[in-house]
Specification:
WH-like_DNA-bd_sf; 2 strands; mainly alpha; globular; two-stranded antiparallel ribbon; WH_DNA-bd_sf; 49% helix; single chain; TR_Rrf2-type_CS; RrF2 family transcriptional regulator; DNA-binding
Length: 154
Amino acid sequence: MRLSARVDYALRAAAELAVAGSHPVTAVQLAEAQQIPPKFLENILGQLRRSGLVRSQRGPEGGYWLARPAERISLADIIRAIDGPLLGVRGERPEHVGYEGPARSLQEVWIALRASERAILERVNLAHIAEGELPDSVRVLTEDPSAWESGSLI
């Protein structure tokens, strides 16, 4: 799975907003806290606002804050708001992609991969990230030393 810079920045900014609670935080403050290019972040925050995950207010007392409690916003919600569906194959949902002959099983692999991603990304929410307390099912995966090894580049 590859996460775009936009998703990475969105997740980091959302974690900052989770810590801030209901207090508005400016885009400049978010950008500085997470070392994100400010103009890039403004666009990302706009996407999150249009998706109903973030609210904003203009003016001297303005800024951004989460539209609902951090425990009700999953990482999957943010990823979908920024980049669309969690897993696509040639721009299609895996259940809409068919293969013939010996490649027929690939569709099931893509669906299993999406289910695996969902099992983590829909379970972990912004409160978990902000508090540094991941669900046990996720923490167990990170305790396996092989999880920290990068795969072959070829």
